[in-house]
Q: What sequence folds into this?
């Protein structure tokens, strides 16, 4: 890991330490999944249908997508540090609002407001790209997200334990406390890294056509979007499959929902270890093929009559493995098309990933309620992985075409 600026932990005159970036990205992942085992209990508390409570996943992802669109340009203009601190403050207040909510409408309002924490996902990537060049950025993002992968592995289990011991509301009090602690850490450790903080919005808008006109940028964006789409579809339908299709208790549901993170940790380690050596394009291809093959085998086994919770959730580890290889490298690619607009590129790419994920999560939830066991969710996840592979083939075709001109 060469060519990095000097970093001193808890010194806000230097760029943030990698551990701060891990926590910043991790709280976004935790907020997305920690409460999932409690969805049935929350539906009973508010007297709401499961489909309405599932909006706390799909609509939350939609709000996350919108926030990512606007936060990138804002952070390019005003800097990463003030945007991160402001977003964490909003997140703490929104988490307390979820804790005290007395009806489903109030809860969903504050749940949507919690999406402010998506700033952590966007700007942790942009900060890495501020600090190091493309191939090294893929490696460093891999290490950041490898550490972050522990969060979705344990978050549903934490949520299930809190629900069982103190009730589902305690999960949101826990998030408020974690958000407050992270806000202090970022205040103490996160120095400014944005080199374009003096650019006006007019200057940024003038640069955007060049960014958005790049086929390579869009190829990386959609490779990342469809790869992550398999995971977001799983988030939308996994709790239903565990509880309604395979009749699993809340404690086991939390365990099963954390299984993709096992593959994600391995994939991110491989990205951190090999991206510089092998190159980002090769790593993305390998990840998308592994994801596609794993989900295809899972679907085939289900048709052959081997459907069970262990088979279904066991093969979902390939979703995590594929994402761990694809996402750090695809994000490094899309951030490197125009490095001085890294915040904008990260925001747009993240918005498309999350927006597509919101759609897939909603579709998965709706189709599963129509019956047919886990098949609808498996088909959605498999087709999304195929689309990720095809998107990467487009990037490779474009790269060969540019080399031959």
A:
């Amino acid at each position: 890991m060469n060519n990095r600026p000097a970093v001193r932990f808890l010194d806000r005159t230097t760029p943030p330490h990698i551990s701060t970036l891990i926590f910043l990205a991790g709280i976004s992942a935790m907020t997305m999944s920690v409460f999932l085992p409690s969805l049935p209990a929350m539906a009973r508390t508010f007297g709401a249908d499961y489909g309405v409570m599932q909006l706390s996943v799909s609509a939350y992802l939609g709000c996350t997508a919108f926030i990512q669109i606007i936060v990138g340009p804002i952070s390019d203009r005003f800097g990463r540090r003030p945007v991160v601190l402001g977003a964490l403050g909003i997140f703490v207040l929104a988490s307390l609002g979820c804790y005290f909510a007395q009806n489903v409408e109030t809860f969903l309002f504050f749940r949507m407001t919690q999406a402010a924490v998506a700033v952590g996902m966007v700007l942790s990537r942009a900060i890495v790209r501020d600090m190091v060049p493309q191939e090294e950025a893929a490696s460093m993002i891999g290490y950041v997200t490898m550490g972050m992968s522990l969060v979705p592995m344990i978050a549903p289990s934490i949520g299930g334990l809190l629900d069982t011991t103190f009730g589902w509301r305690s999960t949101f009090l826990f998030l408020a406390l974690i958000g407050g602690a992270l806000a202090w850490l970022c205040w103490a450790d996160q120095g400014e890294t944005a080199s374009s903080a003096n650019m006006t919005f007019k200057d940024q808008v003038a640069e955007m056509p060049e960014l958005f006109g790049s086929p390579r940028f869009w190829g990386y964006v959609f490779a990342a979007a469809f790869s992550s789409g398999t995971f977001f579809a799983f988030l939308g339908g996994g709790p239903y499959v565990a509880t309604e299709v395979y009749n699993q208790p809340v404690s086991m549901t939390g365990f099963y929902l954390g299984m993709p993170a096992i593959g994600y940790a391995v994939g991110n380690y491989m990205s951190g270890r090999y991206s510089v050596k092998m190159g980002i394009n090769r790593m993305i291809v390998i990840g998308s093929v592994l994801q596609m093959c794993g989900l295809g085998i899972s679907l085939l086994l289900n048709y052959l009559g081997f459907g069970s919770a262990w088979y279904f959730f066991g093969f979902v580890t390939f979703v995590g493995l594929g994402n761990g290889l694809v996402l750090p490298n695809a994000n490094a690619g899309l951030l490197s098309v125009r490095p001085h607009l890294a915040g904008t590129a990260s925001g747009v790419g993240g918005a498309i990933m999350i927006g597509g994920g919101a759609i897939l999560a909603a579709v998965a939830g709706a189709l599963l309620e129509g019956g047919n066991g886990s098949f609808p969710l498996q088909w959605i996840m498999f087709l999304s992985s195929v689309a990720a592979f095809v998107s990467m083939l487009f990037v490779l075709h474009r790269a060969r075409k540019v080399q031959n001109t």
Observations:
- The mean pLDDT is 83.
- The chain is about 80% helix and 0% strand.
- The CA atoms of residues 90 and 155 lie 21 Å apart.
- The radius of gyration is 20 Å.
